[in-house]
Amino acid sequence: MLTKRIIPCLDIKDGRTVKGVNFVNIRDAGDPVELGATYARQGADELVFLDISATNEERKTFASLVKDIARHINIPFTVGGGISSVADVAPLLEAGADKVSINSAAVRNPQLIDELSRAFGAQCIVLAIDARKIDNQWTVHTHGGKKPTDKKLFSWAKEGQERGAGEILFTSMDHDGTKHGFAIDPLSKLNALLQIPVIASGGAGNKEHFIDAFVLGKADAALAASIFHFGEVKIPELKSFLDEKNIVIRP
């Protein structure tokens, strides 16, 4: 079994970390710089920063905040929100990001995946997919989950891989913030379909849910937010638990 990764996520709005349920009912979760530094100290494998209002507000991600967080961490750092061109990426990498996450702009212009992959390498490009089940099909949504599209999860993920994405970050909108567990069935289907890593997101509520994501869902990494932000699950304890269950994780 390949090494699995634990990834805290900082959803950023107005310079603060926030968290909601099913992409609504947003509440404050703390200072992103402090949280990022804490997670790095605790042994998180990577950190994800998503500026969740950048697309809806038609602006770019706050590079200054990215720089502040990057100065306090020593783990791989993925940044997303409002990225719509090759020119948007360089300032974020210069500010300290290791990878960028694209979502709405890629749905609008799939060629963007090809362009970014050619310019920066596939290992730098994470295709984030927010989807919920509608009429028994996983339908892709954009603009922070506000706009349904005609794209479907599995075909869009496959196209993203073919265009040069290095990872897929799949968030189940139906599971987001519920703490009832990850969306295991679509996770396992994605991992059977793709050759690139898949990150599970949406629904983590306890340590056992991570085992389900890794063993049943075959996810390469599991991302969570509120259970880490509010101290319900601590990363060192989670890693010890997974190690006891013979899940291969990074020290």
UniProtKB/TrEMBL annotation:
It is an enzyme of class 4 (lyase). The keyword Transmembrane helix does not apply. The lineage of its organism: Bacteria, Pseudomonadati, Bacteroidota, Cytophagia, Cytophagales. The active site is at 11, 130. This is Imidazole glycerol phosphate synthase subunit HisF. GO terms for biological process: L-histidine biosynthetic process. Its EC number is 4.3.2.10. It holds the Pfam family His_biosynth. GO terms for cellular component: cytoplasm. IGPS catalyzes the conversion of PRFAR and glutamine to IGP, AICAR and glutamate. The HisF subunit catalyzes the cyclization activity that produces IGP and AICAR from PRFAR using the ammonia provided by the HisH subunit. The gene is hisF. It comes from Chryseolinea serpens. Pathway: Amino-acid biosynthesis; L-histidine biosynthesis; L-histidine from 5-phospho-alpha-D-ribose 1-diphosphate: step 5/9. NCBIfam families: hisF. The keyword Metal-binding does not apply. Belongs to the HisA/HisF family. Heterodimer of HisH and HisF. It is found in: Cytoplasm. It comes from the Bacteria. One of its GO terms (molecular function) is imidazoleglycerol-phosphate synthase activity. Keywords: Amino-acid biosynthesis, Cytoplasm, Histidine biosynthesis, Lyase.
